[in-house]
Every structure is written in C-alpha cells, then in structure tokens.
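Hey all, sorry for the wall of text incoming. These are the two entities for the joint prediction.
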Amino acid sequence: MPRLYRRSRKTQQQESSDKLAFLLNGEWVELDPVSPTLTVLEFLRRDRRLCGTKEGCAEGDCGACTVTIGELHGSKIKYQAVNSCICFVGSLHGKHLITVEGIKQNGKLHPVQQCMISSHASQCGFCTPGFVMSLYTYCYQQEPGFSRQKINDLLAGNLCRCTGYRPIVTAAQKLLKRKNLSRYGYSDQAVTAQLKKNHFKKSHSFSVNDATYHSPVSSDELATLLQDHPKATLVAGATDVGLWVTKQQQKLDCIISIERIDALKTTRVGKDMVSFGAGVSLSEARQVLMSDYPDLGELIRRFGSEQIRNRATVVGNIANGSPIGDLAPALMVLDAKLTLRVGSYRRFVKLDDFFIDYGKQDIKPGEFIESIQIPRVFKDAMFSVYKLSKRFDQDISAVCGAFNLQVDDEGIIKDIRIAFGGMAGIPKRASNVEQALMDESWSLQTINKVMPLFEADFQPITDCRASAEYRILAARNLLKRFFLETQSESIETRLSGAVE
Amino acid sequence: MSNPGFKFVGQEYAHDSAELHVTGEAVYVDDILLPENSLYVFVQGSAIAAGKLTKLDLTKVKKTEGVMAVITAEDIPGENNIGPVVHDEPILTQGKILFAGQPIFAVAAQTLAQARDAAQYAKIEYQPKEPVITIEQALKANARVLPDAVIKRGRSSAVIKKAEYQLSGQLCIGGQDHFYLEGQVSLAVPQENGQMLVYCSTQHVSEVQELIARALNVQNNEVVVETRRMGGAFGGKETQAAQWAVIAALIANQTKCPANLCLDRDSDMIMTGKRHDFNVDYKVGFNQKGVIEGLEVILASRCGCSADLSGPINDRAMFHIDNAYYLKDITITSKRLRTNTVSNTAFRGFGGPQGMMVIERIMDEVAQKLGLDALTVRSRNLYGKTTRNMTPYGMKVSDNVLPELIEQLKRNATYAKRRKLVEQFNQSSSIIKRGIALTPVKFGISFTTTFLNQAGALVHVYKDGSIHVNHGGTEMGQGLFIKVAQVVAEVFQVDPAHVKPCATRTDKIPNTSATAASSGADINGMAAKIAAEQIKQRLIEFAVKEYKISKASIKFAPEGIKIGRKTVRFKTLAYQAYLARTSLSAQGFYATPKIHYDAAKGKGRPFYYFAYGAAVTEVAIDTLTGESKVLRVDILHDCGQSLNPAVDMGQIEGGFVQGMGWLTTEELYWDKQGHLQTHAPSTYKIPACSDVPQTFNVKIWNKGKNLEPTIFRSKAVGEPPLMLAISVYSALTHAIASMKSGADLPRLDAPLTPERILMAINQ
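and here's what came out:
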C-alpha cells in the first residue's frame, strides 16, 4: 500500500443553502450542495471512500453498483435495489441509503453474506457486492415461497462473468429458505422515525457552479418551475438521463426531479381505465397491469432489471421517445392516452400521435406529461406483446411487436391494432397491414396474404441488434405467432415466460 | 476425484478472499486510497480506423482547469512499444492510425471528469484511408501480422478424393469480449530516485514491469509491479493490461504524482483486444461409418492491428483441430490476418475453442449426411488407446480417458432415451423444436512457448509459526491462492488459514510467466511445494539434532510434529529452529519437464498432458423467431485428483456458461468504418442468471488422476470447461436440423443469435 491520505473534494462554489440530508447506513449525512449530476456511486467511492460498491459499466446494466434505498411510502418504509451508477445524489434527500459496508449487524455477517461464502458464490469478487445487495434488499420484502424464476428476476440486473451463476442461485435458495429475513436489517421503526422529519415534505433545490437541482413536491410547483426553466431536464428515476451524464458527459444546467411529488405517484384503477402518474415506476405499474394483461406483465418483467424497474417510470419510457419502446408499441395498440400539462393548461394526446419522428415528440417547451391512461381489457379483445432480443432478460429489443384484436362471432376481424418498436425511427403502427386485415376472416390465409404489406409499413435499419432482413421476417412471424396463439392454447409458441 | 490420503489438499476450502468479497472489503486497484496529489488519467482514442494524423493541437487541453499533464508519443523517454512478442504496436500513436480507438494522447487531471472534459478540446485532424476491417477484406488485401503456418500429416488431398464421401464448407466463428467486471486499471506511484511502484490489474506482472522499464528507459530493477487480485481477467489482462500501466507510469514519471488510470467500460471494450474471430474453410473425406479419413482446413483469423499473442493463439487453434479425434491424413493451414481493428488477444482457451468448433461442426455434418446420431460419429472417431493415438503434431495421446468418461456421462444423462424424446417432441411440436448433443473436450496443458513453463515461489515461516507464501501466479478469481495455500498447508500439515497468500510482486518473484494457459496451480503450486519442502527438510534436520532422534521418527501431522513419542506444535518447532539460527525462508523453482516443440516442422510435444471432459446439452428453439434456450446440461469433467473440488466446480460451471455466451448471445459488431458498436453491456450481451439451464448437473470425474506427476496429481481446469459449451452449438444444430429434410446442414456461423438461427431455418 502507498502512504494513504484521505482525498478531499475541492470546496465548490455554493449558491444555495438547501442541504441534502439522508441516512447512510443508519447514520445521518448532511451535505452542502453538490453537483446536480454527481452520481451516488461517485459520491460513495470518491467522497465517502466506501469502495465496496463497484463501477462495472456506468449504465445500469451490470449491477456491480447495486445499493439499497429505503423510502417512506406514507408511514411505511420500502426498500428497493437501485443502480447507484446512474442515480443522482440529489435523489437521496430524505431517504435511507444502504451499502455493502452497512449490512453487517454487530460485526456479524448478514445471512446473505454467509450464504454466499458457504455456496462458493464469489470468484473474482467484483460483482459480489452487487449480488449481495440485490439479495439483501429482497430480505426486507421477502414473500413466502420462492421459485427459480423469482431468483432469476431478482438477479437479472446483476452480471457475473466468473461463476456461471449456479452457486449464486444456490446461495439465494439457501438464504430464502430462512424465515423473517427482515430482522437482520435495519429496524423499520427507528428508520421511519428518523425519516419522518418535517422538512422532507418541503421542496428543495441546490446549485453549484450555475447548475441547479430542483426537487418540488407538488405538480403546481413543477408546472411553474418548468415554465420558468423550459429547457430544464426533467427526471424521475433518471435511468436514461443518468447515461447522458456517465456516457455522453453532458452538462445539465438545470435538473427538475419529479420523484418527490406524491400527486404524480398515483395509480388510479377505474372500471375502464388505469391511470399512472408520471412518477409511477415500472415495478409498481407491473403489479397493476399484469392481471389485466399478462403479456404486459411479462414484457415489464423483461424490461431492464429489478434495479431499473424500481427507478424507471412508465411515463419516462414514453417521454424519452425511444424508437424501440418497449412499452410504447404495447400501449399504442391498447389505445393509451397522455395528459400533458403546461402551467395550469392540460391537453390530451393519443399515444399514437405523440411520436412524430425520430427524436421528435408532440410536447412543447414547458410542458410535461402528467399521466397516462390505459384502457382496461375490453370484451372479446385479444392482446399480445412479444419482445425479441439476443438475451431474454435485461436486453433492448431488436423487435417488439404488439397486437390487439377483436373478431366477431363469424370470425371476421372487427378491429385490429398492430404496432412495432425497433422497426422504424419511432414506435409505429402497421397501418397498411391493419387496413388489409379489417373485415377479413381471421385465418392463416388472410395473414399470409397481408405479409408483404409489412414492407410498406416498415423499412427497418440494420444495426448491432439485428439486420433489416431479420426484423422484417421476425415481425411477420410474430403476427403468425399471434394468430396461432389465438387459435389454440395447446401449441407451444414461446420459450420465455410460458416455459419455466 | 479428490486426493486420497491428504488432509488439506482435495478439501473444499472457500476462496481465500471470500469474506472480503461479500463485505466489499477486498481492495481492487481502483479502491486503493490515493494520496492528496494524485492524478486521474484519461486516454483519447482515434476517431478513424486507418490513416494518419495530420494535426494534433493539444494547447487548449493543457490549459483546461485541473489538467496537470498531457502526453503524446513524443513524451516517451524510452521505447514506444507495447507489443509483447513482436515490437509492432505503439503505446501512443506516432502518427499512423491502426484502428478506431487507438490511443493518441493521455491527459491527467485532478479529477477524472476534468481529464475527460479536457480531452474534448483537442484539435485532431486525420487523413483517413480505406480501412481493412473484415477477414474477407484482409484476405483480399493479403494483409498478415505473421507468416502462415502449416501442420501436415499424410496426403490429405489424395485421401479426401478417394474417400467414399466428401463434404466441404465454411464456418465463421465470432470473437468475444472478456467482459471482466473490473475494467483495466493501474495506479503508478513514483518512488525515490526515479523508481516506480505500479499497482496493476494484470495476469502478467513481469511483462508489465518490463514494458514500463523500456518505456521509461530504465532497467527492470527500477520498477516494481504488484497485483493482489483482479476483478476477472480471462486472458484479457495478460498483455492488455500493460498499455494502461505504462501510460500511468509515464504520467507519474513526468509529474512525480501518483497516477490512476482506470478505463471506463466503453473505452475498455473499444481499446482492448478480444478473442480472435475465425473464418474457416474445410474439406473432409469420410467412410460410410462416418470415420474421417482426410481433412483439410484453412483457418483465417482476424488478429487486428498487431501480432500481440496471435502466433501462439493460432498455433493452439491448429493443435486443437483434432479435439478428441484421430485425424490421420490432415493439412491445417493458418493465416494470421492484419486488420484495422483492435489487436486480438488471449481469451480462455487461447485459440483452442475455435479449433475445436471446426471439427465438431464437421462431426455434425457427417452425421447429418449419413443419417447417424452425431454421438455415434463422434465415438467412432475418438482417439484410440493403443492405436490411432498420435496427434497431427506428433504427440502421443497416452491417457485417453474419453471413451470411458463419455460412456459414464451418457448413462448419467440418459442420453439415448432423451434423444428419442427430443425426436418425439419435434414430431408433435410445430413451432418449438428441441435438440440434444454430447461433445467431448481434450485440451492440451502447457504454454506452447516452452520457455514460459517455469515458476518461482517464496515461502516464509515466521517464528510464531505463521506462513507467508508468494509465487508468480496472479489471483483473478480462479482460486489459485487458496489452492497454493492448501499445497503449502499439506507440506507442513497446518491449517491453510495459517498460510497467508500475498500479492504477486515482481520484487518477490522475478521473471514470472503470465498466469495463463490454465497453468497457474500446476506450476506455481509446484514451485511453492518445492520451497515449502526445503523448509520442512531444514526443520527435520533441526529436530534430528535438537531431539537427538532419527529422521524416520519425525512426522508432520495436523496435530503437530511427531518427534518420536512427543508431539511438538508447529509454531513451537518453528520458534526453536529460529533460535537455533535455521533459515525459515526458501525459494522454490519449477520447470515443466518433457515438453518441446519445433514450430518449423510442426512437430513435438507441446503439452505435458491433456485435460478431458464432456457435456450433454439439450436446447429448444423457436422456429418463428430464432430465439433459443438451453434446457438442461450434464457435464463430467476430469480434474485429475482435484486440489479443491469447490474451486474446480466453479471453473467448470463458469467456463461452460462463458462458452455458452460466446456461442449464443455474445455478438461483436463493427460498422463498415471499423467502429465497434457493441462496447457496453447494453449492446453486448453476456449470459444473465436466467440463461443458465435450470437443470445443470456438473460432476468432477471420480476416476480422474493425472498420469504425469503434477502437483498432487491434479489437472489444470481454467480453460478446458469453456469448450464444453460447444455442446450448446451442436444441440442447436440438431434442433435446426429437425427442420431440414435433406442430408445437408445449413451453414451455421457462431454466435447462434436469434437472427442466425431464424435465417438458417429459412435458408
């Protein structure tokens, strides 16, 4: 070891007095303003010298940086696994951050650590803290019973290159057989009491070197802020914007975070409609949507990873205008609508109309998406969505196809909506194919007839995910798969999800 | 099997750092607490793949806030070279651009963010030229990094012509990124009098030392390189670590400040070498039983912009064309191609996997042609025990355990029954199809460059009885340190907990070889044993004098040293020996015997022995989308007498899954201009947890024993299991074949992504 000195961050120019306050491994931390784009990972490793949390990719894909973040939901604390590499420190205000250094109890290894050791589940050890934290987080929310599928889902966002995962799965199985795992963690009561301090209910903001981080607590405040700063970067979980910083070195002068606005975290389940506020995460949305639309539940299960879904929002996935989606094509065929707001003025836009062109959406400066409304299953409709990617879990689609069909008693197509991600510069309806199918009989013959029209609807590109030829062929075949699945449940048509 | 009669060797001790791993306390290079004046280094790569620099103006970079140093090729006091064998690759470009991402300059600042920001202010202009990116382009341009090589036996051309059946084909085998979770990282700390201490995540401390010394124009003894552990390596930190260590040392040397250079993931994937991709042409003649009579193979590999280790890698590909099979008349030609891509390098298997892929593909094709079970064809071609047992390069296969091992695996995995079930399934299932395959592995153990097969170790026994062991091997997660500690523990009959493995350092053990070629435990374990045995002998000699007893009456046992009827604790004897002025420190040295190879003749015994294994894999494919899933895997692997079955199990499982990734989801994609488009985990997909088959039965062969006197008769296990994953490729072939009625298999290039599978079905 060289001579070891503590490295201190240079004192930065301070312009705002709001301090950031949160619990770090059970201890209060109060920070003077930091750069709005400082990531939790960087803060831990460079400022706090807590180096157990690792950087493997700086894009939320490998999970070596996984930490646990506890947040009050009403009077209850809820812990979630998060990728610290793309999470801004500003988002920690009023929360409890737990790192691998903070999970021993009275100097004794946590059961997850014991199980990892006894299962020989670490080799190089670099990914290990991330796995430990993913499993540790689950200890707080442990559900009775667990399957291999559950373990796969819990760990989909943690990559290991040495072990081949088997011993880690064994460690998880050993761990989850134990009961009441939450007792090995921080006391809910004590932490809740600490976090209930009043000032966390107020909006706050801080600035360093002309860059500002705003964290309002009401929609009205947000609307005003955004009118004042129309060029501001709006973030919820920052699972996309985080990469603008870590990958593109973008300097963001003004970040407005919506994550402390309770009104935007609301889910409303009506008879005909589900509505998600802009702050509703994919994890939360999945719980609601999976019963109406099992396929949508499966799609979201494969969307990112546990860590990403905990932070990423449904609305964020729409607002960033990705040509792939993955939610967009599914929500388009379900005829979802957006509520956009500027100041106190609201307007409604059909999701179909929201995507104008690559990188261009129907949203004006100062405007934000307040919520999304998704119709619930209507009678006789058949809905499927399929995601094709090189890897089943935590991959971005090469092609994502969604189908929503209504046929009458004679087997005539009364309504069909088909949309694809990954086939054009925007998520896009297959309008020529749809048109040709309308009022025809729902048969293999009809389907074969309309196949050539895919080329009229889509001219996909060749890139690292797939070639144009594959995309067209696979898109056609997905229509065929959809047809087969509407015909009989006995034909096996899927390798993921259905097969366990 | 584990070692009978041994107390500590053969036991399932946890990894030496297991507790540090799970608590996050294990210190990796980027975790070392830095002195106040430390600098962070960012390396700027080229924006084009081929051509030259016409302008490099760094004025504004140097003036940026926080920047303390900017270096280019001109700032290198010594040799501007990073080529380990052939000196053909610069540390920083001298003007010529060899690949997109090639380091042009390095900037050091007080924070990494400052260094990265500053680099954007460089004014760089290029004169681009048409790059040579693909293997086809390199063949057309006749671009080589090294001369072609040939291994030849008999008259393959004539034999193929005369054979009852012939077939020929092509196969492209993709490369692979190492994707170690810890990127390349070095920390150079200047010492007094111009000396340099460098903490580096490398498999090869001595080479890093030497390349730094050459760049700084000093002798090797001015530079110390230390590696405690790596966050994964897989061959990717054998030669590829040096460049960053050298740049950090150059910055540290110039500024007299410690310099940390940690590549971010994207830079790492763009700027460091990968597994070689191969285009293969083959022609084969065989009889009606499927026995191969003649074979001609041309291996064309993309070596990238420099030679690096491409010589021995392509040699090893040639040595493994036979895999487990006797190929009597054979000609193997190897073309080592130069391209404007990053220089490809060592990766677990080191060319072996690509070689084996060729023959396994041929086995599948021969079986399809003759309508036989591919396993029947494989079995008929296996090396014999007493005849048909000479490799094309003239080494006798003297301990071929495969017939027996395959038989046992077939039974364990109920191969025959399951193959029938697969066929039944395919008859009733129209969209999802299944496939099953058993493939063997025979892998040669030793560096094929003979002189590298040497190792040193240093063992200290302290007067309190605690033990310290150093050796030239590095710990990258493979469990080498605990294995060597077990070896030393066995010699002294003390618990391995008393044996402390220490960081690998060039000032403790000089002239180390890379920890590579699966040789780590074989050679370093042996060197440590030799060192420990010397101290043990001295302790015995001391005890003979002290206790006035014969040598034969002294025995080391776990409860202590039995001296006649007395039992003396190890620490007591150590202390007594110390007082009697006995040296309790010893150095051990080991050189692998029996090996030699004449590259010009293509003959010799490049390997000390072979490691064996076999795997049965069952898969399913979706014929509408090309998606695939591995359903079940059964493995039986020969570790000789395992030093640590838990550690070896980890190598087998981990190697298999890594190989599975190579052949299925891991696809490297360069655009036409030579820019790698898959340079992060969002685009480059290594296996995730759910890709591992739900049924994954892995067993270490209970009859394993090394015929050669290796360290406690164990066998190397680092690389061989990766090639067990060829069974995945073969099973996928079987599933795809179920869609084809004819005798010809469609061409199947690796990796078998959904796209490749769907296109093959629709061919």
